[in-house]
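Following up on my earlier thread - several people asked me to post the actual chain instead of describing it. Fair enough. Here it is, all 154 residues.
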Amino acid sequence: MKIANHSVVEMHYTLKDADGTVIDSSEGREPLKYLQGVGNIIPGLEKEMLDKAAGDKFTAVIPPEEAYGPQNPQLIQTLPRSAFGGVEKLEVGMAFRAQSTEGQPIEVEIIDIEGDNVTINGNHPLAGVELHFQVEVVSVREATPEEIDHGHVH
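Reply from S.P.:
Thanks for posting it. Predicted structure:
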């Protein structure tokens, strides 16, 4: 069976950046299971998965626009230290949950601290990164009506 929309797919993968640094991998773990065609994985990889079958191995290079998007400079802001009321010690690399201007929850990371100025970045950590995947399709099956209705694998 070839991968099509509403297929349940199991795959092993290794994800690297353009320099070859491993970002994530299923090595030593269960394969990743997802429902094709409903946005469970990044759009560029979902496109690459179409028409593959169990046993297929391939590589795919996904540009930022088909992954987590480009870096959005508007999501990098400098705030006063007082905006982090209740947090005694702020450090670069700390992450917080905040709200976007549209009221959506987003993760922000402190990327710089200078005196009372704290710079945060609300971009996804992989925004602006070209992603290099090595993929092995383990299995493909039709999704159940319940999986299709719920939009994920059961």
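Residues 2-68+127-150 form a domain with the Chitinase A; domain 3 fold (CATH 3.10.50.40). That should answer part of your original question.
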